[in-house]
Design goal:
The chain has 2 domains: 2-100; 135-263, no CATH class. The longest helix has 35 residues, at 64-98. It has 8 helices and 11 strands. It has helices at 2-24, 64-98, 102-108, 111-114, 124-133, 159-170, 215-230, 252-263, and strands at residues 32-37, 42-50, 53-59, 148-149, 155-156, 176-177, 181-182, 188-189, 193-197, 202-209, 239-243. It has 265 residues and is α+β, with helices and mostly antiparallel strands. The termini are close together. The strands form 4 sheets. A 4-stranded mixed β-sheet has the order 6-9-10-11, sandwiched between helices. A 3-stranded antiparallel β-sheet has the order 1-2-3, covered by helices on one side. The protein has a two-stranded antiparallel sheet with strand order 4-5.
C-alpha cells in the first residue's frame, strides 16, 4: 500500500506539471531563444526558421516580454516531454501492480490448493492476527483501585478508557490495553491502547490524559510524551492523543474523528 500511495502521489504531481506546461504552450511565440554571455552583459537572440533558413535577430532590452516568453517556452517544452515519458512508465507500472497483487494471486487459487501452499508473504489479516494473538503482560490494577469492564470483557482504569475501548470494539478495531513498550533507553512504558498497521508493519499508540488539571499528573504525562518523541514516535503520526479535565470531559465527536482519521483510513 505504501508503494501504491507513493506512485499515486508521484503520478498526480507529474500530471499537474504536464497539464500546466501544456496550457502555457497553447499560445507561445515561434522560434527559440539564444543567449550569449560575456563578462560585461548577456545578449539575447530570437532564432526562427524563415523560408527554410535560420534567422537570428538581436533582442533589445525593451523586448523583455518576448525574451521571457521564449525562455518559458523552452522550459515548458522540456517539462512536457519529460513528464510525458515518466507518466507513460508510471501508468504501465501501475497496471502491472494492479494485475499482480501477491495477496490476489493467493486468493485466485482454488480453496483446496490455497490451504496447502505456503505463501511468500502473509496477508494483512494474517499479520494483524499474529500481532493480536501474541501474549503480553499488562499492568495490574490494584484491588482497591476503581476498574470498569469494557464490551470486550476486560477491565480498564477509568470511565473514559472504557468509552474509548468500547468505541474501538464497536468499530471492530483490534487493540491491546496497556501493552508494554520497550524504549531505546531500556525503560518500559505502558501506552493506554496499542494498535497495529499491517501494511506499514508498525504499531500505533493512543494515550488518554484524563487529569490535565492535576499538576502531578500533568508532569507525568509530559514526561511520557517526551519519551515517545525521543523514540521517534510523534503525535499525529504513530501517537494519538486525547485529553480531559474536571470541567472539560472527553468529547465523543473528537474520538470518532480520530478513529476515522488514524485507525480506519
Amino acid at each position: 500500500m505504501s508503494l501504491k500511495d507513493d506512485l499515486k502521489r508521484e503520478k498526480e504531481k507529474l500530471e499537474r506539471a504536464y497539464q500546466i506546461a501544456s496550457r502555457r504552450l497553447e499560445d507561445v511565440p515561434t522560434g527559440t531563444l539564444q543567449c550569449s554571455v560575456s563578462k560585461k552583459h548577456i545578449d539575447f537572440f530570437h532564432c526562427e526558421e524563415i523560408n527554410h533558413k535560420l534567422e537570428k535577430r538581436y533582442l533589445r532590452r525593451d523586448e523583455r516580454e518576448l525574451i521571457c516568453a521564449l525562455a518559458q517556452k523552452e522550459y515548458d517544452l522540456k517539462i512536457q516531454k519529460i513528464t510525458g515519458k515518466q507518466l507513460k512508465l508510471l501508468y504501465k507500472l501501475e497496471r502491472s501492480m494492479e494485475n499482480a497483487s501477491l495477496e490476489d494471486l493467493l486468493q485466485e487459487l482454488h480453496p483446496a490448493k490455497r490451504g496447502i501452499v505456503v505463501p511468500v508473504e502473509l496477508t494483512s489479516e494474517e499479520k494483524l492476527k499474529i500481532w493480536y494473538e501474541k501474549e503480553y503482560i499488562r499492568k495490574e490494577i490494584a484491588i482497591n483501585d476503581p476498574k470498569f469492564q469494557t464490551k470486550k470483557g476486560e477491565y480498564v482504569r477509568s470511565k473514559s478508557e472504557k468509552i474509548l475501548a468500547d468505541c474501538f470494539y464497536d468499530h471492530g478495531i483490534l487493540y491491546k490495553y496497556e501493552c508494554p513498550l520497550l524504549l531505546n533507553n531500556g525503560w518500559i512504558i505502558y501506552p493506554d491502547f496499542t494498535f497495529y498497521n499491517p501494511e506499514k508493519e508498525q504499531e500505533i499508540y493512543w494515550e488518554h490524559d484524563g487529569m490535565m488539571d492535576d499538576d502531578n499528573y500533568l508532569k507525568s504525562a509530559l514526561k511520557k510524551m517526551d519519551s515517545y518523541i525521543k523514540n521517534d514516535i510523534y503525535p499525529g503520526d504513530r501517537l494519538i492523543l486525547t485529553f480531559e479535565s474536571r470541567n472539560v470531559p472527553l468529547d465523543s465527536v473528537v474520538v470518532e474523528k480520530l478513529i476515522s482519521n488514524y485507525l480506519l483510513s
